[in-house]
Amino acid sequence: MIASLASVLIGVGLLGLLATLVVIYKPLYMAQLSLNPFGGETKEHHQGLSTKAPWAILQQPEINMQSEIIVTSGGILVMAWEKFISEKVYERISPRIYETADSVLYGSWATAIRPRKGSLAQLILKTPQVVALMAMVEVDLVVSDYLATRPTTEVLHDKRAISNLVAGVFGGNDEEATSPFEESYGVVVSNPRLFDLNLGERSREAAEKLFEAKKFREAMEDLASQIADSDKRSNAILLATGMAKKNIYNIEGLEGAVKSVAEAFASARRTS
Predict the structure, then answer these.
(1) Looking at the whole model, is its pTM more than 0.85?
(2) CA gap 110, 105 in Å, rounded
């Protein structure tokens, strides 16, 4: 009888607990954060049913977990990776100019970014716009450092090494592996790939392009060496360096694309 009474009390307690919780429903692929205003803790609510405390506040906007943006050497595209590949959009992305030990090369690369389950608070805190821009910076820094110490002929004979280098910025092509960048910014970075690396058109502007590439790399190296904290370094690169701003932001159509990145990760259904 005592055992039966204990079972009844436990059942009543559970019902009482459930009565104090608010049930949340999220459609397929959708997610949303709730915030405990007393302790500051956040909870992710994904597709299907979940619960939250009555005092927890749902945060806007909802996040489409299938949404993707494509970060490229020439800017940011709001589209799915499948469309980017099937329609051969990669053939039309603008290359970046990189300094080698004796010349300059034009490189085209791209990668896809989508929200990461379990890290949505980081994504919202950093903002999708900053995440996309910082992904561009991360690739540019790694590629610039690698090319700057090698002669042009050596680099052109080993493009696979550059492609592997681009992939390695975000932990390689293994989507199960999580890079420090993905953990810090709350995203999954997939399909990082080098699409082209060439000499470009030889012209009288070559010396000027070499000077621009050299100054950009030097500015990035100075900031990276002076600031150990990754978040502070990111902010410094984006806000304090005129050369970085010139090379990163002055890309045709980038300003409008950046403004639409947040909308791409919000509640609109994925389009292809």
Answers:
(1) no
(2) 17
Amino acid at 242: G
Residue-wise pLDDT tens digits, 5-53: 555 445 544 444 445 688 999 999 899 999 999 988 999 999 999 999 9
Write out the two tokens for 193: 């790939």
Please name every residue paired with 25 in a beta bridge, in sequence order, or none if there are none: 49
The superfamily CATH assigns to domain 79-253 is Band 7 domain (3.30.479.30)
Give DSSP secondary structure letters for 137-179. Answer: HHHHHHHHHHHHTS-HHHHHTTHHHHHHHHHHTTT-S-TTS--
Per DSSP, helices labelled H in the chain are 2-19, 81-86, 120-126, 128-148, 152-156, 159-168, 180-185, 206-226, 230-239, 242-249, 254-265
Residue extents of the structural domains in the chain: 79-253
Amino acid identity, residue 239? L
| pLDDT at residue 227 in the model | 53
